[in-house]
Amino acid sequence: MIQITDQDITFVVQGPVQASGDRTQISGITRECLSSIRSYFPASTIILSTWKGQPHQGLDYDQVIELDDPGSNIIFHDGKPQTLNNNRQMVSSHYGLKAVTTKYAVKIRSDSKLVGRQFVDLYCQYADLPRQESFSFFNQRTLTSSTFFISSHHGRPVYFHKSDLFDFGLTEDLLTIWSSNWIEELSFTLKQGYKARYTTTEQFLTLNWLSKLIGKPLKINNLTGEDAGLGTDFWPQFIANNIIVDAPEKLGLDVTERFYKRGNLALEYDLSDWLYLNNKSGKPRDTKRLYRSYKNLTGSLLRKLKS
């Protein structure tokens, strides 16, 4: 089993310290975030990666990186511009991780906090399970939160919808996810249908770094049913061999109340799904999975009726 000490880990807390006109934030949450890390990991290093002019003075960190704000980026939904903060997250995450000198790192948003340290134990328990060489793209598995790690939508599979709130693993692997390959101007064309949705931020962020790993450009236009030409089995196998996932409360992560009542909780991958993908357990049949099956079944039936 992998052994990791607190001294082996650097926490990169990325994002603004205070709310702005285009991003709401709980008052004082960054202070709580930093204090929670220091409480649970007193021997670990904390890097705050934020923007120039942010009021970081007096906060509990070991190093601060003050960056020029890259501003919003634009994507297009059938020609209509959408203003997003993808590159802000990527820039603060990348340059924070570039400053890490320890073997392992955590990427955590400045509006989340820790309520425990279970993610380290979970990682040590499962990171070195046997992997299929053909699907092993990271040097070692990473770990992430189930928050918005979506498996399906109204009866159709969803691919590449990895959560972007929290990552833990080898620093070099996190730098693969949070690289300097910024999001360029993207255009998406929606295929009309029942509950049709455009590609989400989580999906095109994932495809951005996955394209580099695969060695060819990858793109999808719709939330559901598009595998970017990799085949329907690729993404489940990629998860099994590269990304451990579980619910934030099982990791010791508090995503705060803005995400407590997020929709589609039953559709999020978690450790039970992950163990099943790795053939370490039977197909889970708990309440969450039953409700997921119900949502997928009703979605499929409604889609047929409306078509």
Automatic annotation (TrEMBL):
Q: Name one Pfam family in it.
A: WavE
Q: Which InterPro entries match?
A: WavE
Entry protein name: WavE lipopolysaccharide synthesis family protein
